[in-house]
Specification:
Layout: H1 17-36, H2 48-57, H3 60-86, H4 90-114, H5 120-144, H6 149-191, H7 195-209, H8 213-221, H9 224-231, H10 241-251, H11 255-263, H12 266-275, H13 281-294, H14 305-310, H15 312-325, H16 329-345, H17 347-355, H18 358-366, H19 375-388, H20 394-400, H21 403-410, H22 420-440, H23 444-452, H24 455-464, H25 473-489, H26 496-503, H27 507-515
Helix pairs in contact: 1-4, 3-4, 3-6, 3-7, 4-5, 5-6, 6-7, 6-9, 7-10, 8-11, 9-10, 9-11, 10-13, 12-13, 12-15, 13-16, 15-16, 16-17, 16-19, 19-22, 21-22, 22-25, 24-25, 25-27
Length: 522
């Protein structure tokens, strides 16, 4: 959402540190066992009990998470080896190389226990990677066995080249493995009539999408969007719609996912779901999340928006209704985020919103702290207000809904948690509320209401006090513009020093003055 993105981008899920250590312990001890056994795997074929335990203990989703965690560890180790090699830390380079060698073999052995129908190409890369890792270990061992720095230096370029090759083979193998897994999951989704099997496959697919844009591209290229929209068109899978739509929203963060959505008339399907009152609120909310994703102003690819415009009126109408009837803050956030994004790319959306009395609905929602309960929700509301404020009719709607009071309150938006994302959302709320005030103050009635609510002193405070605006330049610029607009309507509300420093100079000069202002000057 706005404000609702292989190995290098891999990330681990945030969990309790002790729990993480317990999980990682298995991987580390497996690695040490492999070292002692000289990287010779224990054959599960001769131990049926072990095979049974392994297959029953982990689901497909668990196996994928284990694989991804192993991939992350190997990627991290390869990066660290390159850093130690640069510093000529030969002993560390060798010990880490041995560890990588063992992790690679463990990963391949683990994967072979739960995969099906591995391709010949995959087996070839497994062999190439294992052979190159062995060669790598032999090179580094030779380096620690000699004290001659000249020999070490002569071998360094060879070791660097081998490390690069190992990383390339590893990346290519992981690409094949993840593509293979995505194909298996999509085959299950396409062929199964079982709700349970389909739900499990979609859950595993969603977990893959959370590992970054690269995996989303793989899934999209393998037909993931097509398969998931097929589920959304079958009534027998209605109970899976929320989960399916959530997965679609993740895949559509990449251009390949968007192209697939366009090919299968995905926007029409989303419009049908949003306007069908027999669907649950959860389904409507997740459909809104997909709309928010595909209309994000941060996306550089917009080919899909032509078909979106054809369905825009009914989509906007359904989203306004969802905002009005939202039973929780999360549902309101998703619906309002979709509306906020839509207002960025077509002014017709703002006109539709005016006709639907959306201003009144959004302003009323903001007075309900159970629904609009975070800076993120207020960010979406003020974005819609800012974009609608370019319309002349908007001013009367703002006055009637007590919107100037809300905008004034938003100028005081502060983070309660200190979380970086929340702080950024608060800055956006302050900036956009100032922008909205500046735009609406062309109407004398709005400007008069803003002056009576003491907006001018608050704007001056935001300009002069860096901490009030969290040192945000964008908030400063917006406040200077709003202040100048209000000063035209009410010049008596300013002290001479404020006029001389914040109003009279060029905007850029006032900006530079405020950005260099120390807190003690306030």
């Amino acid at each position: 959402l706005p404000s609702l993105s292989l190995p290098s981008s891999m990330h681990l899920i945030q969990v309790d540190s002790v729990q993480r250590w317990m999980e990682d312990l298995k991987l580390m001890t497996d690695c040490e066992c492999m070292c002692i056994l000289q990287s010779k795997p224990i054959s599960v074929e001769k131990d049926e009990q072990n095979e049974l335990i392994l297959s029953s203990q982990y689901s497909t989703c668990d196996n994928l998470q284990l694989l991804l965690k192993r991939v992350w560890i190997i990627s991290t180790e390869l990066t660290r080896i390159a850093q130690k090699l640069e510093k000529n830390r030969w002993q560390r380079v060798h010990s880490m190389t041995v560890r990588v060698n063992c992790h690679v073999r463990s990963m391949i052995n683990e994967y072979s226990t739960f995969t099906r129908n591995s391709s010949e190409e995959m087996h070839q890369f497994e062999k190439l990677l294992i052979d190159k890792c062995s060669e790598f270990t032999a090179f580094t061992e030779r380096c620690i066995q000699t004290e001659d720095e000249e020999i070490r230096k002569s071998m360094k370029s060879c070791i660097n080249e081998t490390l690069t090759t190992v990383a390339q083979y590893f990346s290519q193998l992981i690409e094949l493995v993840l593509t293979h897994e995505a194909q298996n999951l999509l085959r299950q989704i396409e062929l199964s009539d079982s709700v349970y099997v389909t739900e499990s496959a979609i859950s595993s697919l969603f977990s893959l999408t959370q590992e970054g844009a690269h995996l989303c591209r793989i899934i999209a290229k393998e037909g993931g969007v097509v398969a998931l929209f097929r589920i959304c068109r079958q009534d027998c899978f209605r109970c899976l719609y929320p989960q399916t739509l959530r997965t679609l929203a993740s895949i559509c963060c990449v251009e390949e996912g968007m192209h697939q959505l366009e090919k299968v008339d995905g926007i029409l399907c989303l419009a049908d779901i949003l306007t069908d009152n027999t669907h649950s609120e959860a389904t409507h909310a997740e459909a809104a999340a997909v709309i928010a994703q595909i209309t994000s102003p941060h996306l550089t690819f917009t080919q899909h928006l032509s078909s979106f415009l054809e369905n825009m009126e009914e989509i906007v109408t359904a989203l306004v209704k969802l905002c009005q009837e939202a039973s929780s803050g999360e549902v309101f956030l998703l619906a309002s985020a979709a509306l906020a994004n839509i207002t960025f790319f077509d002014t017709m959306a703002c006109e539709i919103l005016l006709q639907l009395n959306a201003m009144k609905i959004l302003l009323a929602a903001c007075s309900d702290k159970r629904i609009v309960d975070t800076p993120f929700s207020r960010d979406q509301v003020v974005t819609i207000l800012a974009n609608m404020s370019v319309l002349d009719q908007c001013a009367s709607e703002i006055i009637q809904g007590n919107g100037v009071q809300l905008l004034m309150e938003m100028l005081f938006e502060r983070s309660s948690s200190g979380n970086s994302a929340e702080i950024a959302a608060c800055e956006r709320v302050q900036q956009k509320s100032a922008v909205t005030l500046a735009r609406l103050s062309r109407d004398p009635e709005v400007a008069d209401a803003a002056v009576k609510l003491s907006c001018i002193p608050r704007l001056i405070k935001l300009c002069r006090s860096p901490t009030e605006r969290n040192n945000s330049d964008s908030v400063l610029v917006a406040c200077l513009v709003a202040l100048r607009r209000l000063a035209v309507m009410s010049p008596d509300g300013l002290e001479d020093s404020d006029f001389q420093q914040l109003i009279k100079p060029r905007l850029v000069d006032s900006f530079l003055l405020c950005t260099n202002m120390e807190e003690s000057f306030v």
